[in-house]
Amino acid sequence: MPRSWSTIEEFERFLDGGGIVEVDDDMPLDYRKAVFRFIELHANSELMGGLAEREWTPRTPGLRHKMAVLAKTQDEIGHAHMLYMVAADMGLKSRREMIEDLLAGRSRFHEVSGSRARTWGDQVAVSFLVDAVALAGQQAVFKNCSYGPYKRALKRIIAEEGFHMRLGEHRVQRIAEGTDKQRAMFQQSIDDWWWPALQFFGPDSAPDDVLVRWHITSGANEELRQQWVQKFVPMLRGYGFTVPDPGLRQDPETGRWIAGPIDWESSEHALSGDGSGSAGRIGDAAGNRQRTAWVRRAMERGAQEPIVGSAAPG
Ligand SMILES: [Fe+2]
Ligand SMILES: [Fe+2]
């Protein structure tokens, strides 16, 4: 039975009490819009991540790893479509409009998901370091999320992202056992991607941010960043690599790793790059969509018109 709330205060008390909003509920319009925008951004980022992954099919070394890339690409595109459906059900924009907006450059995505990996070392670093940031963020959203359909979709997505994490770890193991040249290549990639990964968590959200107030995200990014540092510093050092942070130190009492300050100025630069990677992928996808438009037209017509001669044999 759909629920409704007479005031925003009443709605917020419901959320603060751990209430979960469902698609048929008469939710406040601002909440609907905020959740919708958040899911659309997530969906776009999954799609862009899938398109970036796909480019590595021919460049990935070895058949087993190529098969893993294909599976991962399929997962990411699947995540995008699952999220587009959840977002479309909110009634603000159709799935088609969301995809068309993305391909026309009218909507946003996390720029890091469209980053260009230049070498196999970069690709390993991204799948090891940056994917872990995305997963930590999704887990934090899942824990807090007040919108039921998104929470349930996240549960499935997170399970698959766990496999992607394992793949990243496996790739690092292999490259760590490699030749001096391979290790040097990977060290260079760690140097290039360490800071963008830390920056990808973003600053903490202000407590009056509606995304925090309405339990869409926790906004406690600093805490997530610290947890990530505790995991990845010892891992990389264990494999004999160095962490490119001159300010990094370990608390002698607790053993906790403390990262040096983040230079947010350089983040804009590192994450946005020249945009050519994303622009090219969007251009390719838009071209493919145009070339396959006849299939969608035929499907739509098929759905409207009775199919001639389809009567079952008597
Ligand atoms: Fe994903
Ligand atoms: Fe993934």
Protein architecture, described:
This protein has one domain (8-281): Ferritin. By secondary structure, the protein is mostly helical. Helix 5 packs parallel to helix 7 and helix 7 packs across helix 10. Strand 1 (249-250) and strand 2 (257-258) form a beta hairpin. A two-stranded antiparallel ribbon has the order 1-2. It contains twelve helices and two strands. Bound molecules: fe (ii) ion (2 copies). One fe (ii) ion binds at residues 46, 49, 75-76, 79, 157, 161. The site of one fe (ii) ion (FE2) has 7 residues, from helix 2, helix 3 and helix 6.
SSE series: HHHHHHHHHEEHHH
CATH topology heading = Ferritin
Number of strands: 2
Q: Please write the CATH class name.
A: Mainly Alpha
CATH architecture classification name: Up-down Bundle
Helicity, in percent?
A: 55-70%
Q: What's the structural domain tally?
A: 1
Strand order of the largest sheet: 1-2
What amount of the residues lies in strands? under 5%
In whole angstroms, how far apart are the ends? 45 Å
Radius of gyration: 22 Å
What's the main sheet like?
A: 2 strands, antiparallel
Query: Taking all residues together, what is the mean pLDDT?
Result: 90
Q: Which ligands accompany this protein?
A: fe (ii) ion
- The rough form would be described as flat
Annotated CATH homologous superfamily: Ferritin, core subunit, four-helix bundle
Can you count the helices?
12
Question: Which structural class matches the secondary elements?
Answer: mainly alpha
Flag low-confidence runs.
268-274
